[in-house]
Amino acid sequence: MALDEIRKTKIKKVEELRKSGVDPYPAVSLRTNSIAEALDNYEEWKEKKTVTLAGRIMARREHGGSVFFDINDGSGKIQAYIKEDTIDGGKEAFKLFQELIDIGDFIELTGELKDTQKKEKTIYVVKYKLLSKALLPLPEKWHGLQDVEERLRKRYLDFIFNDESREVVQKKAVFWNAVREFHIQHGFLEVETPVLETTTGGADATPFKTYHNALDIDVYLRISAGELWQKRLMVAGFEKTFEIGRIFRNEGMSPEHLQDYTQCEAYWAYANYEDMYKFLQECYRYAAEKTFGTLKFKINGFDIDLGADWPILDYTEEIKKCTGIDIWEASEKEIKDKLNELQVLFDIENRVRLIDALWKFCRKKIGGPAIVINEPKIISPLSKTSSKNPDITERFYFIIAGSEMGQGYSELNDPIDQRERFEAQEELRKAGDKEAQMNDLDFVEALEYGMPPTAGHGFSERLFSFLMDKPIRETQIFPLMRPKLEK
Asked: What domain range is 32 assigned to?
């Protein structure tokens, strides 16, 4: 039967239910326990004689004057048994159940917990109440949703049938709670910073632009979890802050990239990037252990052990070792020629983006976990210059399974240097580099009041997706999808 015909049939059943005095969508359920609680305390509830459970009907098996069916409330599944000569309301109530209640409907059941002859835990129903009548049928039980796009578009159905998908949702909550716990345990204060900004800062990324009606101005969705705002809090005398929040980048999609996702950023006064990478390393271990119960993972073909030593690698040396290019000596033409030879695509041909493209090629070869340091100053407009070499910065990256999995720096707190770097970034923007950072003079003014030595870090839900060894879209509960065209 076509989907539209099934829906019409179910709407007729709704009408029949109402004629019979049954509300197909009541406001309340009187269940006493979740199914998991009833099963966990099965013997105790058997002695209490009566229990009220509720859930979605997932399967049913007719046996003349009786029906076996399964209900699931998200916490677990239990078999139910209903019989016409024992149900409250007798044959009329049983007939209504047979004819008007379907797989997919939510139902409340009151009865006794008993074992069947086959020793299956079952609720023997003496009374039932319809809680919600479904108008569309569930996918066929054994196949569910096979098409990946359809699974992501109709996640609510995927979660009904796919225990692995449900596990992702549950583990992701544990993961971010563990990250939050770790920061709070180490004295960090959780804060909230603006999502709408007049200038974006804290990353090299293309922002989403929108319009603020009340203020009559253009604004942007933030591209970092409040980096420049949290640094203002350092100026204000807060010593340790962090934020876990949504950020937005108007860029391409890939197994590692999304346009809106969750990120954690933290700032720590009187600390430097070495203090921060040691802290963050322990944070990753804590979150992984809490979420997965292990520090060993198989990711993108790499064997990863977060509990092992993390080697420290030099940014320039890794590029040279991988490509033969010395970024300090090579001309832009030589770098472009090498990128073409390696078949690496690049859109913008300024030196910053060319070096970055080389680095992104090289990092794919690094299994890790590893810590990369000594990034060139021209690529890091917000990090402090190294006291050992004025051409590099005190910035680190974590590399896991060939991808950047977090970063941090000794934050730049020299307002004169910061103004000059913003101006250099502004020139890149004028030349067509949409990812270059905006000149935030308000932030520079805040720095002029003085910010103590500060370290910062940032990492996104990409880390969780890698530990799950899944494309990042499949680890989001409801990823952004292109609207489905009507036929």
From this structure: 3-138
